[in-house]
Design brief:
The protein has 283 residues and is of the alpha/beta class. The chain contains 10 helices and 8 strands. Bound molecules: iron/sulfur cluster and magnesium ion (MG). Pfam families: PFO_beta_C, TPP_enzyme_C.
């Protein structure tokens, strides 16, 4: 109970952000209990958009980044304190448009952070403009004639650029979503969860997702193999009338950025101490 903050909630009724908020709350509470992680060791970051309010609505340490820039702040926080579980909540406009370069480089570095994308395929807070994952033909506030671009497949981008844990969830499958959050948070390295989030007001895709989304079964994808993950990721190219797989597509262990960086910094400090010693003796 204490994990939900008393701040007034201003999301629209029926918004998928409620599912993400409550499942993140449960994930944090359960991991704290099961893994012995103190609650104060969880840090949530938000970007700009409806999703960003989540960090005000949960009672854990939090930080607001500017539009699309919460990811590099997360890497900095993780670098400064290796005990922290750093979780970035971002929007699809926020991270696939404004912040795409930061997302790609955090994946490339295998920064030990978790990125949860509230992918409602629209800019909700600014009342309905198209984002990089809006489907072709989408008629938004800024594109009344419909957009003429094919949407980005963010899971494929993440696989290609080095993310070591890649998953997709859906806000109407809450228990599944919670399990995906827990798995992503406990993964050592860059973990990424794209969440198909219902925007009840500007782009309600509930019927479409309910009809097409399904949970990947054990053994259906070899999560340690790039080609297997890629095949599963390409099953749904975002706007075709194809089944939409939900679950973990890829998960591998690789050295993490923050540890390599610390080892390098420690090496430098050692060399400096040696130089000081030699110079001191010589004098
Ligand atoms: Fe949720 Fe859409 Fe309302 Fe924003 S505009 S709070 S995403 S339903
Ligand atoms: Mg959005």
């Amino acid at each position: 109970g204490g994990l939900i903050s008393p701040a007034e909630n201003t999301w629209c009724p029926g918004c998928g952000n409620f599912s993400i908020q409550h499942m993140m709350k449960s994930a944090v509470a359960e991991l704290s209990e099961e893994e012995g992680i103190p609650l104060e060791n969880f840090v949530l970051l938000g970007g700009i958009g409806c999703h960003g309010k989540l960090v005000d609505y949960l009672n854990v340490n939090s930080f607001y980044g500017i539009h699309g820039r919460s990811v590099p702040a997360a890497t900095g926080i993780r670098l400064g304190n290796p005990d922290l579980k750093v979780i970035c909540h971002v929007g699809d406009g926020d991270i696939y448009a404004e912040g795409l370069d930061h997302l790609i480089f955090a994946a490339k570095r295998n920064s030990d952070i978790t990125v949860i994308v509230h992918d409602n395929r629209v800019y909700g807070l600014t009342t309905g403009q198209y984002t990089p994952t809006s489907p072709e033909g989408f008629r938004g506030r800024s594109t009344p004639g419909g957009i003429t671009e094919h949407p980005l497949n963010p899971l494929e981008v993440m696989l290609a650029t080095g993310a070591t844990h890649i998953a997709r969830g859906y806000t109407k499958k809450v228990r599944h979503l919670k399990d995906l959050f827990k798995e992503a948070i406990m993964h050592r390295g860059f973990s990424f969860v794209d969440v198909l989030q219902i925007c009840a007001t500007y782009f309600n895709l509930t019927d479409y997702y309910n009809e097409h989304a399904y949970e990947i079964e054990a053994g259906e994808v070899e999560t340690g193999r790039y080609e297997s993950a890629l095949g599963k990721i390409r099953e749904w190219d975002y706007d075709r009338d194809a089944p939409i797989p939900l679950g973990t597509f890829y998960s591998v262990e690789k050295p993490i950025y923050e540890e390599k960086f610390r080892a390098l910094a420690a090496g430098r400090a050692e060399r400096r101490a040696l130089v000081r010693k030699v110079v001191g003796e010589w004098r």
